[in-house]
TrEMBL record:
Source organism, top-level taxon: Archaea
Coiled coil: 114-141
Lineage: Archaea, Methanobacteriati, Methanobacteriota, Methanomada group, Methanobacteria
Biological processes per GO annotation: Mo-molybdopterin cofactor biosynthetic process
This protein's UniProt keywords: Coiled coil, Cytoplasm, Molybdenum cofactor biosynthesis
GO molecular function: sulfurtransferase activity
Signal peptide residue numbers: none
Protein name stated in the entry: Formate dehydrogenase accessory sulfurtransferase FdhD
Pfam families in the record: FdhD-NarQ (PF02634)
Organism of derivation: Methanobrevibacter millerae
Keyword RNA-binding: no
Xref: InterPro entries: Cytidine_deaminase-like, FdhD
Gene name of the encoded protein: fdhD
Length: 250
């Protein structure tokens, strides 16, 4: 069931104003509580919350193994995660997932992605179109970001009002379903700043592709972490930044 609500609005077009019904996305305040201690609240779509929790904890460098996660319970908009205390990695940036404010303090934990994975530019062009085709809430409301993860012939798409949460959800899905993330790539709608590229280095994803542009901070992190960025992926064009050998142009 799509998280959509119909509301009243006035539409102005071609010098004419009229009352209309418009769809808006339904977001909720989602709270993730870890070991009854660490708590994080954010605005998100109440969907794929287990995937979000897993992706968030990996991407925030709280855990680096699925073995660390003992249990995740979902109760409405509340997520409760139990982590093995001996495997829980705490750091000062744990509360910064949905903003760029904490990325500078995360640079020291960026690890180099080691992967020989390659993908055809033609596949990337096809996937960005599939991404839009599968973005049902975005098509109905224009109010979401959409992210996808590709592994072999599997292409999983998630949407959210937050681009960070959308990416956390697809990475969490891959981790929960035993994807080899070193042979996968993430494709999404949005810019590629440092905080988004850092997510790739956390879990070893070698390629991040987008219809938008990289930021200087994202490019520098990609160089440090050996992540390939594919930007301006629109129509029959794209730009490839860093370790371009991962994209096959023939």
């Amino acid at each position: 069931m799509m998280k959509i609500e119909e509301v009243e609005a006035i539409s102005y077009k071609n010098n004419e104003a009229k009352k209309v019904k418009e769809n808006v996305v339904q977001d909720e305040t989602i709270t993730l509580t870890i070991n009854n201690d660490i708590s994080r609240s954010l605005s998100a779509i109440e969907d794929s919350l287990e995937e979000f929790a897993v992706g968030y904890m990996f991407n925030e460098n709280m855990v680096d193994s699925m073995d660390a996660i003992k249990e995740i319970k979902i109760e409405g908009n509340q997520i409760y995660a139990e982590i093995d205390d001996t495997l829980l990695k705490t750091n000062e940036t744990v509360l910064c997932s949905d903003s760029a404010g904490g990325w500078r303090s995360k640079i020291k934990t960026v690890k180099e992605v080691k992967s020989d994975f390659q993908v055809s530019v033609h596949e990337l062009i096809d996937r960005i179109e599939e991404l839009k085709d599968n973005a049902e809430i975005w098509q109905a409301t224009g109010g979401t970001h959409v992210a996808g993860i590709v592994y072999n012939d599997q292409f999983v798409v998630k949407e959210d009002v937050s681009r960070h949460v959308a990416v956390d959800k697809v990475i969490g899905y891959g981790l929960l379903h035993d994807f080899d993330l070193s042979n996968s790539y993430v494709i999404y709608s949005g810019r590629m700043p440092a905080d988004m590229v850092i997510k790739m280095t956390r879990v070893g994803v070698p390629i991040l592709a987008s219809n938008a542009a990289p930021a200087n901070s994202g490019y520098n992190i990609a160089k440090k972490g050996n992540v390939t960025l594919v930007g301006f992926l629109r129509g029959e064009r794209c730009n490839v930044y860093n370790n371009q050998n991962r994209v096959i142009f023939d």
